[in-house]
Structure formats: structure tokens, C-alpha cells
């Protein structure tokens, strides 16, 4: 139950920032690295297709937030869809990959994923103060 009025503009700005700083890169990395690798396993193809569709649906929510056209009821739906999507990846896709792929395959996917996610990890760092150099 909601305790007070929702500052929809602030929420939409936050949703936009999350997408631009991290989630967009995360989606792209999954689509470029994880999904193609998982699609090679017949029993994972259906879940990969579902996750791709969910990425498209979630991008529509992010676009609405960017345009400041996300309604309060849509915000709640977005939060629920994103949470279900993450759980599906963790509990179905990643578990399935661990059961069907070799350690070498998983390590290669992990390394490629780390590389693809570098832009997102750099976006999350705070600038550091420079230490004076002695000399």
C-alpha cells in the first residue's frame, strides 16, 4: 500500500537513469553474449525467446519513462515485470546453462560477458580525488 503521492517525474527520471547507466548495457550484453550461447542448447531456446521478448517489453517502459509518459499504474507493472524477468534469468536460464554447459563454456561466456559489461561498471564509479605527486 502506498503511503503518499508518488513523485512520478522523479521516478521516471530514476528509471531513465538506471537504463542509461546500467540496464541498457546489461540487456545488450545478454543479447550479444548469453542468449546466443544459451540458444545453442535446445532445451533453453524457449526461455531465451521469452527473455528476448521481455527485454523488448521492458525497453518500452524505459522509453515511456524517458519521454515522461509512464503512468503510475504502469510504474507498478514495470517494477513487477522487471523483478519477474530477473528471477527468470537467475532461476531458469542461468540454472539451465549451469546444468548443460561445461565449465570451460561457462568460463568463456563469463569472460565475454565481463568484457561486454565494462561500460556499465565504468558508469557506476565515482570520480576519485587525485593524490598529489611527490617529486
Provide a descriptive summary of the structure in words.
- α1 runs antiparallel to α2, α1 runs antiparallel to α4 (103-116) and α2 packs antiparallel against α3 (72-100).
- The mean pLDDT is 88.
- The protein is mainly α and 135 residues long.
- Helix content is 76%, strand content 0%.
- The protein has one domain (8-121).
- The protein is built from 5 helices and no strands.
- The chain is elongated, with a radius of gyration of 18 Å.
Write a brief structural summary.
The protein has 135 residues and is mostly helical.
Task: List its traits.
mainly alpha, 135 residues
Percent of residues in β-strands: under 5%
Helix content: over 70%
> What is the CA-CA span between the terminal residues?
61 Å
Tertiary shape: elongated
Number of strands: 0
Quickly count the domains. Answer: 1
Low-pLDDT segments, ≥5 res: none
Architecture blueprint of SSEs:
Layout: H1 8-39, H2 45-66, H3 72-100, H4 103-116, H5 118-123
Amino acid at each position: 500500500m502506498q503511503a503518499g503521492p508518488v513523485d512520478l517525474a522523479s521516478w521516471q527520471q530514476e528509471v531513465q537513469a538506471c537504463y542509461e547507466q546500467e540496464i541498457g548495457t546489461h540487456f545488450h550484453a545478454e543479447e550479444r553474449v548469453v542468449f546466443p550461447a544459451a540458444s545453442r542448447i535446445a532445451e533453453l531456446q524457449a526461455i531465451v525467446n521469452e527473455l528476448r521478448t521481455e527485454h523488448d517489453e521492458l525497453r518500452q517502459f524505459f522509453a515511456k519513462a524517458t519521454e515522461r509518459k509512464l503512468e503510475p499504474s504502469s510504474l507498478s507493472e514495470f517494477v513487477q515485470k522487471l523483478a519477474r524477468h530477473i528471477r527468470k534469468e537467475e532461476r531458469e536460464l542461468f540454472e539451465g546453462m549451469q546444468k548443460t554447459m561445461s565449465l570451460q563454456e561457462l568460463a568463456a561466456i563469463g569472460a565475454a560477458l565481463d568484457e561486454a559489461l565494462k561500460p556499465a561498471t565504468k558508469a557506476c564509479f565515482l570520480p576519485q580525488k587525485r593524490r598529489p605527486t611527490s617529486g
